[in-house]
Amino acid sequence: MKNKINKILIITLTMGAIVFGQGSRMGTASSSQLHIPQGAQFLSGGGAASNAAGIDAVYWNPAGLSRSENNVDAIFSYRTYIADITNSYFGLAGNLGSFGKAAISFRSFNIGEIKETTIFQQDGTGNVFTPQFMVVGGTISKAITDRTSIGASANWISEGFGRVSASGISFDIGVQYNTLLDIDNLDVGFVIRNFGQPVTYSGEGLGVWAEGSDTDRPEEYYKVDAASFDLPYVMDMSASYNLAGINIGGTYTSNYYATDEIRLLASYDLAGIGSVRGGYQMSTKAQEITDEVSKWDYKSPFDGVSFGGTLNIGELMGGGNFSLDYAYMPTEVFNDNQVFTLRVGF
Q1: Which of 7, 119, 122, 218 has the most CB atoms within 10 Å of its CB?
Q2: pTM value?
Q3: Are strands 228-229 and 199-200 parallel, antiparallel or unpaired?
Q4: Does 216 map to a domain?
Q5: Into how many domains does the chain fold?
Q6: How do 228-229 and 86-95 pair as beta strands?
Q7: What is the CATH number of the domain that holds 339?
Q8: CA atoms of 284 and 327, how far apart (whole Å)
Q9: Residue 313: inside a domain, yes or no?
């Protein structure tokens, strides 16, 4: 019965990858902050969907949450992102006994102040506004066999700037399977992330002072109906294998509104006191535009090599489960990204 369940899960998610991963598309989606990786342990994400475990798995694949050996896990991460944007991430997970494990998480994005401009005051009105972006999530995960775990997350998304705002709910669902084909240390994972209803902006900022056409009504405020935008749906198909002490992982990411991506990661354990890792990301080619006037040549600024490491502070102090992760991700145009993450387990 267990083997039958495993086969059904793997076949279902593989077929989903075939259906939804039909080449690279380019388009516009809402809530692009959902694409920003959280935590430093997996850099850009190579192999993360297959072997991320514990609180680190909440972003990459909720199925991995149940693989934590701790009763309580906590994580805090800080990232210097592009264009002077910073990202903070906090997560807390606990054991629910026979129900598995559950976690809550919070992501916030500090964009800073932006000068207000209008059509008639293009150099600025003298006012500033501060965009507010955050994501609050809840995750539940359970090991259904000794090899298979499943998990799901629901994320409340909140965005606002000036006098307009939007909110929505996205969902992640995934599965991890260990020892594929009875090969020790060979793990696979599948996860669908960021699916849900489209997001629409509303608020006083969408009102315009105008005079209606073909009417005797005086000038007044009219509400502009903003268009709805889909969430940035993605699907990750991942595998990892431990060979001679080196953990090698690969992930193929099928993006519904962007080019697909290939992510690789290799890490090496340093006698239990820490680890070092290097990653690589490559975006596939976007579909060509046949318009003779326009030419589209897209490349992700995060394509290329990244590296980092982990220091097991608890091991160095003679006890305790405390780890400090670091990641460095060069970008082609913007300032290079750095991520610092503290993980604690009890």
Answers
A1: 7
A2: 0.85
A3: antiparallel
A4: no
A5: 1
A6: unpaired
A7: 2.40.160.60
A8: 24
A9: yes
